[in-house]
Amino acid sequence: MAPSRVAIVTGAARGIGAAIAKRLAQDGFAVGVLDLVEDNCKDTVAAIQGAGGKALALGADVSNAEQVTAAVGKAADELGPPTVLVNNAGILRDNLIFKMTEDDWDLVLNVHLRGAFLMTREVQKYQTEQGFGRIVNLSSTSALGNRGQVNYSAAKAGMQGFTKTLAIELGKFGITANAIAPGFIETDMTAATAARMNVDFEQFKEGAAAAIPVRRVGQPEDVAAVASFLASEESGFVSGQVIYVAGGPQD
Ligand code: NAP
User: Fold this and answer.
1) 17, pLDDT greater than 90
2) Which ligand 1 atom is nearest residue 91's CA?
3) pTM above 0.90, yes or no
4) Where are the CATH 3.40.50.720 domain residues in the chain?
5) 150-170 and 102-109 are packed helices; what angle lies between their axes, rounded to 10 degrees?
6) DSSP letter string over 58-99?
């Protein structure tokens, strides 16, 4: 039997997650559009439905086990067993280490790492039953180190180890796990970084683009195109990889 074509994308109310959700819907997946507040998912859901696709809004904090179980169960009941999971939900709480609070450390590690762990533990039940699955985790070039981001860079490096281990453990069930590590992508997250640094966003983007080999910043659709491939059946021999989507090579 062909595997069920149901995907869940976390942090899909906006930015990269919204672009991935829309792209997977175009690819023929019914998409669970998950974000912290269910109502915030309505634009992404409306865009998918307006284009003739199928989508369901799901409200959950990915770092809360009960909410994750409820949201994944709802997606399975209403859309069918999820076979594709994109762990995209993320936040920034940047600061130099001497000013970083324990709360900001815990929050960032919890949303990215605990969130990806809880979501994956729930969704792999359906994937193993189906004998097919695709897990795509959002890492970042910050995994290689970035001033002011000890919490975020530790979380994003952690996502890479998490991904490789999932690939090793779940491969025999027809499940692949890969990470996408974007560089500068134009979203609310990078706009907020510019605002925090008191830099005009247009200037911030120009400065970033000058240092990128392809001479432009990335768009959410650049990431969605790679997620589309990694979610597809034809990517089945690619697993445990980290794909940098950054307009040039990374160290
Ligand atoms: P974004 O525009 O800030 O969107 C992130 C989404 O995640 C928001 O809708 C946010 O909801 C949601 N979210 C936050 N905490 C959550 C939680 N606990 N449970 C469920 N949803 C939660 O960010 P983005 O730029 O699209 O980034 C998406 C992913 O790519 C993140 O993992 C980020 O670290 C990664 N990334 C981004 C860039 C970049 O340049 N933009 C580069 C590398 C990696 P709220 O609005 O309610 O907070």
Assistant:
1) yes
2) 14
3) yes
4) 6-183+223-244
5) 30
6) EE--TT-HHHHHHHHHHHHHHH----EEEE-------B-GGG
Could you give the CA distance from residue 87 to residue 94 in angstroms, rounded to a whole number? 21
| Of residues 188, 117, 221, the one with CA closest to residue 245 | 221
User: Fold for domain 6-183+223-244?
Assistant: Rossmann fold (3.40.50)
Interatomic CA distance for residues 93 and 100, integer angstroms? 9
Q: Which of 8, 14, 12, 10 is nearest to 189 (CA)?
A: 14
46 Cα–ligand 1 center, Å:
20
Distance CA(182)–CA(195), nearest Å, equals 20
Instruction: Compute, in angstroms, the gap from residue 88 CA to the centroid of ligand 1.
Output: 6
Helix, strand, coil fractions of the chain, as percent rounded to 5: 55, 15, 30
Encode pLDDT of 28-37 as tens digits. 999 999 999 9
Cβ neighbour number for residue 3 with a 10 Å cutoff: 18
Residue with tokens 């040039």: 248
